[in-house]
Specification:
The protein has about 150 residues and is α+β, with helices and mostly antiparallel strands. The protein has three helices and six strands, in the order H-H-E-E-H-E-E-E-E.
Amino acid sequence: MAITTKCIICSLMSNIDKSLATRVVDAMYNRDPYSQWLGIERIEDGPGISVLQMTVRAEMLNGFSIAHGGITYALADSALAFASNAHGIQSVSIETSISHVKKVMAGDVLRTQVEEKSLTSKTGLYHITVWNQHEEAVAHFKGTVFRTGKNWEV
């Protein structure tokens, strides 16, 4: 009986956390014209989780007729922001880097996968893989955030 009660409480807490995460990411996304211009779709929000998807458009290409590196960077950076802030504590990036491992073309559909590697009261470390529609990794992003200690009021 205690196990069942504990599981129900865990489930309720998970739903509360998920609801807070969604409210935080809603607030962030609604005030983020750049992510909206990119055409980012939010597939899943949660503490330490952000699955985003977008389609690369012709105006996102560079002089080599491949996606500008800033496009995959911006997608991964948005995933970092949403995943780290979804815990309900305002967090800002303090270090990021990206490795582009496969070219991205117009029409490619990109999706993020976030791995929360470390979370303390002051910092969070995240690895984000950007995949294309063929389930090929096109970029690997690492981001560290500073957790301000300020709660999101949403």
